[in-house]
Amino acid sequence: MRLLVAPWFFRLPGLRRYHGYAFRRTILVRAPNPSEDLLTHELCHIWQSQRRPVRSFWTWFTSTYEESPLEAEARAAVSRTR
Predict the structure, then answer these.
(1) Which of 6, 16, 20, 22 is the most exposed place for a label (fewest CB within 10 A)?
(2) What's the confidence (pLDDT) of residue 24?
(3) Cα separation, 39 vs 13, whole angstroms
(4) CB count, 10 Å around CB of 71?
(5) What one-character DSSP code corresponds to residue 25?
(6) Judging by DSSP bridges, how do beta strands 2-5 and 20-22 pair with one another?
(7) What is the largest CA-CA distance in the chain?
């Protein structure tokens, strides 16, 4: 797993509201020194995409950010680890 600081990525349209973004093996963050909560959230997405890649892609493709069960699971992970 890689963690990269990539402020340019979050200037792209549609990504400006995010502070972190997870790909299969890489987490991009907007700023150096991301919070533990942000890292927990994005690590949960890494785990989801490795555990069930088809479900992760399908859910990303078919649901909104607010309604995504993957987002709910990542937010719950943050709550449990605080």
Answers:
(1) 16
(2) 86
(3) 23
(4) 19
(5) S
(6) unpaired
(7) 32
Measured distance CA(81)–CA(4) in Å, rounded: 23
Q: Residue 22: which residues within 8 A CB-CB, separation 6 or more?
A: 28, 42, 43, 45, 46, 49
User: How far is 28 from 3, CA to CA, in rounded Å?
Assistant: 6
| Token pair listed for 64 | 């909104």
Residue 59 burial (CB count, 10 A): 16
Q: What is the pTM of this model?
A: 0.90
Cα–Cα distance for residue pair 62/3, rounded to 1 Å: 27
Tens-place pLDDT, residues 29-63: 999 999 999 999 999 999 999 999 999 889 988 99
